[in-house]
TrEMBL record:
Pfam families: Glycos_transf_2. The keyword Glycosyltransferase applies. The keyword Glycosyltransferase applies. Residues 4-162 form the Glycosyltransferase 2-like domain. Keywords: Glycosyltransferase, Transferase. Signal peptide: none annotated. PANTHER family: GLYCOSYLTRANSFERASE, GLYCOSYLTRANSFERASE EPSH-RELATED. InterPro entries: Glyco_trans_2-like (IPR001173), Nucleotide-diphossugar_trans (IPR029044). This is Glycosyltransferase family 2 protein. SUPFAM superfamilies: Nucleotide-diphospho-sugar transferases (SSF53448). One of its GO terms (molecular function) is hexosyltransferase activity.
């Protein structure tokens, strides 16, 4: 079984060495490495080239593709995927890294279970340590899992899914160029809808670095609000078109509410909060009861137009998270 590792590179000169070493030192042999230089402005590619020279056996199986201009994370992933020749693919962000036995373990599970998707756990890595986040979801059936992804009860991160390349080929589903926030959320549920056999394992095999604030997806921008609404729209259009008897309708309503509260939590200005407060006003109140207490409080503050209080509430949460990441 051949595996393709797909790695976009942009602004990671402090992290790319650790990432690449973890990939080249995998205990599994039949791996091809596809790095996509998305016109990174720093020294990332020179650092990567130096690491490649230290692994001559892996060098012949390594390909570097250079974009002629910065195209964003989605297109970088698509470029890598189009170049892949493996039976299975795994996306790896270039500021993160793998456990050394990750690919061997994933291949063994995929082969034994005849799976076309293997979902696994990860470590959240902070400055002073890491926290295990095993995949504790108990798979019942595909529809239940898809609904949990849509409601954001489980992570849709593409790097947590070991997938047969054939799944991409037969569906034609790709990352959406220009969608830079919520890009995985817009892709993974649609892709997994067509999966024939999804297997879950608890093993933490991926290290998700939380302290790189320069990463593609770590910094908040005003246009991220539009991106998240775009991702919701893509999923709503898809699941309403494929579902019978509107079976996904209530799930999609709750998903929209969770998107709204998430946007309110990451907004940095009063103007952003006021703009976000205007979206999804048509969702029936009965769907609010399924949200967390914190989310219901935020939406009640929206109803009361207490925008400054929302900003104070969310900024307190933001600084608490920053303190956790630096501790």
């Amino acid at each position: 079984m051949k595996v393709s590792l797909l790695i976009p590179v942009y602004g990671v000169e402090k992290y790319i060495e650790k990432c690449a070493v973890s990939l080249f030192e995998q205990t599994y042999e039949d791996i091809e490495y596809i790095f996509v230089d998305d016109c990174t402005p720093d020294n990332s590619m020179n650092v990567l080239s130096g690491v490649i020279e230290r692994y001559p056996k892996r060098k012949d199986h390594t390909r570097i593709i250079h974009h002629d201009r910065n195209k964003g994370l989605a297109q970088a992933r698509n470029t890598a995927l189009e170049a892949a020749t493996g039976d299975f693919v795994l996306n790896v962000d270039s500021d993160d890294y793998l456990e050394l036995q990750a690919i061997e373990r994933l291949c063994a599970v995929a082969d034994k279970k005849k799976a076309d998707v293997v979902v696994f756990g990860f470590y959240s890595v902070y400055v002073k340590g890491r926290v295990a986040c095993p995949n504790m979801y108990h798979f019942v059936d595909k529809e239940s899992y898809l609904k949990s992804l849509l409601e954001k009860k489980n992570t849709s991160c593409v790097w947590g899914k070991f997938m047969a390349r054939e799944l991409y080929r037969k569906t034609g589903i790709r990352a959406i160029p220009g969608l830079n926030q919520g890009e995985d959320y817009a892709v993974i549920p649609r892709l997994l809808y067509y999966a024939e056999h999804i297997v879950m394992i608890e093993d933490c095999l991926y290290n998700y670095v939380q302290y790189n604030n320069e990463a593609y997806t770590k910094s908040f921008k005003r246009e991220h609000i539009d991106d998240l609404l775009w991702a919701d729209s893509v999923l709503c259009d898809f699941f309403l078109s494929v579902s019978e008897n509107h079976s996904y309708e209530s799930i999609l309503y709750r998903a929209k509410l969770r998107t709204k509260t998430y946007m309110l939590k990451i907004a940095h200005t009063l103007a952003d909060i006021q703009d976000i407060s205007k979206v999804y006003l048509d969702i029936p109140q009965k769907y609010y009861k399924d949200l967390s207490i914190a989310d219901r409080v935020i939406l009640e503050l929206v109803h009361l137009k207490c925008y400054r209080l929302i900003l104070c509430f969310t900024k307190t949460g933001f600084w608490l998270k920053r303190m956790l990441k630096s501790s």
